[in-house]
Please model this.
Amino acid sequence: MADQKPLIVVTNDDGITSHGIRTLIEIMQKLGTVVVVAPNAPQSGMGHAITIANPLRLYPSDIFGDTIAYECSGTPADCVKLAKHHVLKDRAPDLVVSGINHGYNTSISVLYSGTMSAAIEAAIEGIPAIGFSLGDFSRQPDFSHVRDHVEQIVRQVLENGLDKGVALNVNFPPRAAEDIRGIRVCRQANAKWQEVFDERRDPHGRRYFWLDGDFVNFDTHAEDTDVYAVENNYTSVVPCQYDLTAYKTAETIRGWF
Amino acid sequence: MADQKPLIVVTNDDGITSHGIRTLIEIMQKLGTVVVVAPNAPQSGMGHAITIANPLRLYPSDIFGDTIAYECSGTPADCVKLAKHHVLKDRAPDLVVSGINHGYNTSISVLYSGTMSAAIEAAIEGIPAIGFSLGDFSRQPDFSHVRDHVEQIVRQVLENGLDKGVALNVNFPPRAAEDIRGIRVCRQANAKWQEVFDERRDPHGRRYFWLDGDFVNFDTHAEDTDVYAVENNYTSVVPCQYDLTAYKTAETIRGWF
Model:
């Protein structure tokens, strides 16, 4: 049918009960038919993990009322696979959206992010996909100001599609709506986490470690990065691809063998 | 000291007791001083996951005799972080090698692979890194024929270094040494797993799923891919980068906002 509403799969990595996914579902319901398949527990930092050594559980959930929803024991990438190949019986969704993540996924965090792995998994499946993240780690952040940008970006993708194999990584600064200066298309900043391991002892005297660290941006003078954008009150959009080949290096090392 | 041996960190994703890491350690001991930090249990399919919601355990291990070794409760990426920032007290290793994985990590598998996430984590840390995988999933594969290629590739990297932010993804076909035709530098094949979920019921009558599927190569006519190389009895080498930005798409969508 020409006037059929777009089919939109919603997932995340903070878990199905988080405020971020509830906000994203509310916005998507204005734009299409929504099916939710999301983790039953937090999956932050899961990167592009998939569940191959353990069975997966998938149960219907009524926490979003009439909206079709499932909670899954697996990772965000598992959720996308289950949505496409089991829940939708291989009917391809028109869009997969992931988030809204509680916390930034700018720069190198795209690699560790379950939010973005869900979007990239959808891109591998040939489905246009967007991961949304807000730079606020609290459990109840204020999402009110991001709604217009989410809707604007999703409408563009539904209308124009995305290049094959590409997913968008969208990050919102935690600012009031009136302080946001607009949307900027960026590149991934060259940055890393400078890790510190916090060493402690458990009640039995055995050592354990907490991973901790500081974010270090090596692109401090560049104005075309996602980190620059959010630090200057723009919403950042980075198109991400899953072909990791470093073509220039390939030319260099071809002479080695 | 000018004649100081290179410091080589060895890790993997199949776990510290696997045959693949033992083989890799034996080869590396000819080329440098080896420090092992590897998962205490299989971590296949963990992608670039890191452990942020749970504490990490790290214990010394004597399973490799005099070789310094630690077993870690975390992911392959955690192991690299712990090796650099805790075990080596921020002395940068000259090389991080990961594997030898039991099973291919060609094409799209680079994203799901704990083996390659360890190598890419090292690249983020600015350390030259290589992930090695053999196309044989058995617990006791025959590694005899890969030794020469591992050594040849590692010597090139130790002598020439690698471009910043690049790690090598090396895959060996499961063939006898005399059938291997050489080493080819390739690009990541455009392929995916076509998932099938195997639905079962547990003894309590509740449904569960096993992730399963077939590998589908969309690059069947290309001769420059890693999948083509291993299928034609070459060892494949793909340089991988962690900047995921799709620069061409960025140009296209800049007009959207």
Remarks:
- Chain B touches chain A through 78 residues (CB under 8 Å).
- Chain B has one domain: 7-188+223-256.
